[in-house]
Amino acid sequence: MLLKPKKNKYLKLQKRRFLRGIEENSIDLKFGYFGLKSLEYAKIDGAQLMACRNYISKQIKKRIHTINRVWIRKFPHIAVTSKPAEVRMGKGKGNPLRWITCIKPGMILFEVRGINIQLVKSILMYASRKLAIKTIFISRDIKRDF
Question: Topology of 34-74+103-139 in CATH?
Fold first, then answer.
């Protein structure tokens, strides 16, 4: 199951320059005690986010049998369209191929609550390898600026 929106007002968006500036809104932890924060610009696919979330939740269930929560703070809402190979020019825009989200430096990607710091740090740092960007582990006690 991939992440994609249930309903969009406009399915096929124009290309825009999403990758500008530094994130100002979602830079603090709001739900969990630990999180994964981005350090660079990227366009992340919904499949990458799902792979990361599945790994985090599976490792938490495997190691600790209490109720824990994992939050995804970014959702892929931008459709990337593509036309089939060897199709002539014109005839409109292609069909949606995948869904992406734009990541800026300082954005919180995942939040976790309910486990100890050493365990969650190892889980989140290994899960960050499934993403195509550099990330940093943050906690509510330690305030870090990049």
Answer: Aldehyde Oxidoreductase; domain 3 (3.90.1170)
